Amino acid sequence: MPNRAQRNINLDLDLIRTFVTIVEAQNFTRAGERLGRSQSAVSLQMRRLEDQVGAVLLSRDPRHVVLTEAGEIFLPQARRLLRVNDEILAEVRGDDIEGEVRLGAPEDFATVHLPEILGQFARLHPKVSLTVTCDLTLHLLDKLREGQLDLALVKREPLGPDQGVRVWREPLVWVAADKSVLDAAPLAPLILAPSPCVYRKRAIAALEAAGRAWRCAYTSPSLAGQHAALRAGLGITVLPRDMAPPDLTVLGEAQGLPPLPDAEIALLRARAAVPTAAVRLGEYVLSALDRRHALHAAGA
């Protein structure tokens, strides 16, 4: 008889879906509510999954759950398995999901990261109508609370477990037309989005902590407007490293600018019940960004 190490172990997709739901809800009770199961049933399913995997995936405390190192490795693969499972069933049954999904996202993130992902989702689910709203995070949060959005990708400081599911971590950099923008400038000229904006807050806080004087040289709610001001040499700004246009210059400590801590993008759902199509889109976005993270890590 083959021993356990020699047998093929088939992962239970129902257990995997429970694991992913716990991670997104950051709480066993809320996960149970979403799944229609009791907290004890959810806990039992997690123990069964960890037995199958042979590793502890979640670290629990009374307030929330945290992924272990094994859980961090397992999560993107778990999402991939669920996505493939759902796509196979939809194709075989011929009963694809349909309906409208209202997604909100910051303009820069939507411009750089979402077009390909949303295009792939639309091709897989042609009966789903996508409406994407680009706005500042505070406005997106208001729209989510008011029921105008089903899902929202928002910029945030690293916050507690109830502030959505982290989907992206962004290294931030200083950007300008060229290094001469700061020459003989007693006050660092900043190009900013209107308040409130995470990047605006980061730029000002970093300069003030470093004792570097600054002034607001240009304000625009539009990413295109900010880029135009940068190219005109009006000042400097903070952008995610992956979103810095190649024709602009990344500045740093050599120019007397302080380092910047990472920012985060989180996915939030409306508190009211969201349509199945919105749930599926949220899962697809998370899975796609997980894959993109893996590619970034592999290329680092």
- CATH class descriptor of the largest domain: Alpha Beta
Globally, the shape reads elongated
Derived from helix and strand composition plus strand pairing, the structural class reads alpha/beta
Distance between the termini: 44 Å
Q: What's the CATH H-level homologous superfamily of the largest domain? A: Periplasmic binding protein-like II
Uncertain residue segments: none
The helix/strand order is: HHHEEHEHHEHEEEEHEHEEEH
* Share of β-strand residues: 15-25%
Known CATH architecture of the largest domain: 3-Layer(aba) Sandwich
Kindly identify the CATH topology of the largest domain: D-Maltodextrin-Binding Protein, domain 2
Descriptive notes:
- By secondary structure, the chain is an alpha/beta fold.
- It folds into 3 domains: 95 residues, Arc Repressor Mutant, subunit A; 109 residues, Periplasmic binding protein-like II (D-Maltodextrin-Binding Protein, domain 2, 3-Layer(aba) Sandwich); 90 residues, Periplasmic binding protein-like II (D-Maltodextrin-Binding Protein, domain 2).
- The protein contains 10 helices and 12 strands.
- It has a 5-stranded mixed beta sheet with strand order 4-3-5-12-6, with helices on both faces.
- Helix 8 links the parallel strand 8 and strand 9.
- Helix 1 crosses helix 2 and helix 1 crosses helix 4.
- The relative contact order is 0.14.
- The mean pLDDT is 84.
